[in-house]
Amino acid sequence: MILGIASGKGGTGKTTVAANLARAYGSPAQLLDCDVEEPNDHLFLRGPVREQEIITIPVPQVDASLCDACGECSRFCQYSAIVSLRTTPIVFPELCHGCGGCALVCPQGAIGETERRIGVVETVESENVTLMQGRLDVGVALAPPLIRAAKARMRRETPAIVDAPPGTSCPVIAALRGTDFVALVTEPTPFGLHDLTLAVDMVRELRIPFGVVVNRVGIGDDRVHGYCAAEKIPVLLEIPDDRRIAEAYSVGSLIVDALPEYRGLFMSLIEKTMKLKCAEIGVSAGGYDENQA
Amino acid sequence: MIQELVVISGKGGTGKTSVAASFAVLAERPVIADSDVDAADLHLVLAPRTTARHEFRGGHQAVIRQADCVGCGECLAHCRFGAVRMAGEGGEARFFIDLLSCEGCGVCVRRCPASAIDFPERVCGEWMVSETRCGPMVHARLGVAAENSGKLVSIVRREARRIAEEDGHPLVIVDGPPGIGCPVIASVTGASSVLVVTEPTVSGEHDMERVLALARHFAIPAAVCVNKWDINGEMTERIENKARRAGVRVAGRIRYDRAVTLAQMQERAVVETDADAARDIRDIWERLNERRYR
Questions:
Q1: On the CB side of A283, how many CA atoms lie within 13 Å of its CA?
Q2: Taking CB atoms and an 8 Å limit, are B231 and A247 in contact across chains?
Q3: Which of A64, A234, A257, B176 could covalently link to B8 via disulfide, CB atoms 3.0 to 4.6 Å apart?
Q4: Contacts of B184 in chain A (CB under 8 A)
């Protein structure tokens, strides 16, 4: 079972849910921190870094002695990452998606590829949890390749939680691809509701079964609950607005450790997602194989 | 010269939009831009009346014409984004492009021996020019699960600057996205200054350091403010000290105040209410301006 944790709006509690859930499993669990721009799970699941791997993407390298300045590469590139003005092209590696198209179309065979570092994937052992986190280098724009690299380290036989970045665009898609069930974390405010509706559209597009976690229940109103009822979306968990939770979070403590009375809440989320996933099997998520992460 | 102040945070949910909306109210004749194009919220407070809508075309997408496909699998073999799906096997194999994974590079289009792949432009969202009670606003909506948020952010900022230039507005206030990747880079490059809104938590501290490193990388002057500072006063000091050591100005603190959520529910900016936090935000605004006009 691979459970994705996502949200349209940032700061609704994805990390809180993901890290506490991973610990609440008790038995071995994997946590993939795919918020590679700002990975935070390691602040709550501390432990030794067992492994660090540098992740690169291929970018073009032009051999000027072979180039006849035909400009074919420049015309082909959709990202303006290689530009030729009737000259040997200039490469802008920070714009390159690494598709390999320029090398493919070069009639002179003058374009090879070199590896450009975009970040690292670190593996941290924290009690029952194996945390694998991507960490994008500062100044690098492209998060999805790093997210895919982090997810490639997932082992199928152990339960896994994927902590996705906020938003609804390509990095989130890269993170949620191949997950069996998604929990969308929101808060009962107008911003929370608005961004939840965007996230719901997104997971529906991905055809992954999902439910909602409402965090800080009590700070706003009941519009999120009304929306979920109207859309027949299961509310998986409600976390009350409790200043002690905010204080525990602020110093990097897990709720399940600092406030044991909440442990049952997270256990119930594991059970509910399992049940809902079983009920969904055969009805949804069809058409996608699971190796596509 | 037109000033452009971008409100960012690294970590999401620290209060960027509440702060940016308040600045929009406090500023004199600003142009407002929302560059959090995947989860824009500023319009929920500023209630814009849209005067113009534009399609956002963010590149191309590959589409296989099944009638012409010969089932050779060249597209699958050469796609580096895992966007080609196969159904069936051997001579019966059919191939499809998964639009959500396609990055629109065109490699499959070029490789296909049967020329069976079309490459139409892709509509990835829309951007709007609107009027608000604080001034003109440029905002956008990225399509569901769409690509190219950075390009859309660039359009939003360019249009906001254009309006400011044409109509003589001195300031553009940009409500930025969380993170440090593509849309954030597109939001801050070339801006006059950034304000980082953070919170007194281990995550807020960690993410602020990365977003300040990004500002440094692009040589943009930065200031920091700590929202909900009284959740953890010690952590607030630690964060402020870190910012100062990094040569970044501390613009102030905003207290934890339930009236901030209340303002949001009433579709008002915090400074349009008599919340205690409103005073804190005004102080920060004044401190930022001391520097800007000095």
A1: 8
A2: yes
A3: B176
A4: 37
Tell me A168's DSSP state.
S
Looking at residue B291, its pLDDT comes to 62
The answer to whether residue B144 scores a pLDDT higher than 90 is no
Question: Which member of A38, A168, A170 has the closest CB to residue B39?
Answer: A168
Q: How far apart are the first and last CA of chain A?
A: 14
Segments forming the whole domain that contains residue A188? 2-45+127-280
Residue type, B178: P
A16 vs A165: CA distance, rounded Å:
13
| B260-282 confidence digits (pLDDT tens) | 999 999 999 999 999 999 999 99
- Under the banding of pLDDT at 50, 70 and 90, the label for residue B292 is low
- What is chain B's mean pLDDT, rounded? 95
**Burial tier of A107 (Cβ tally within 10 Å: 0-12, 13-18, 19+):** exposed
User: What type of residue is B88?
Assistant: G
pLDDT band (50, 70, 90) for residue A281: low
Containing structural domain, residue B99: 62-119
| CB of B176 closer than 8 Å to CB of B16 | yes
In a domain, A292, yes or no: no
Residues A221 and A79 in one domain: no
Read off the pTM: 0.93
Regarding whether A242 and A101 lie in a shared domain, the answer is: no
The encoded tokens of residue B33 equal 């831009």
ipTM exceeds 0.90:
yes
Residue of A nearest to B205 (CA): A250
| B21 and B78 housed in the same domain | no
Distance, in Å, from the CA atom of A207 to the CA atom of A283, rounded to the nearest integer, reads 10
Q: Give residue B29's pLDDT.
A: 94
Q: What pLDDT is stored for residue A277 in this prediction?
A: 82
A19 and A60 belong to one structural domain:
no
Taking the CA of residue B154 and the nearest CA in chain A, the distance in Å comes to 14
Q: What is the pLDDT of residues A189-227, one digit of tens each?
A: 999 999 999 999 999 999 999 999 999 999 999 999 999
Nearest to A136 among B81, B181, B183 (CB): B181
Same domain (yes/no): A195, A97: no
Flag whether residue A218 sits within 8 Å of chain B, measured between CB atoms: no
B81, B107, B206 ranked by CB distance to A40: nearest: B206
Please report the residues numbered 40 through 59 in chain A whose beta carbons come closer than 8 angstroms to any beta carbon of chain B. 40, 43-44
pLDDT tens for residues B177-187? Answer: 999 999 999 99
Sheet harboring A49-62: ordered strands across?
A: A49-62, A111-126, A129-136, A29-33, A160-163, A2-6, A181-186, A210-217, A235-240
The alpha helices in chain B, defined as continuous H runs, are 16-26, 43-46, 74-78, 107-111, 149-167, 182-188, 202-217, 233-245, 259-265, 276-292
Mutate to test the interface with B, among A17, A35, A36, A37 (most CBs of B within 10 A): A37
Option in B100, B203, B217 nearest A15 (CB): B203
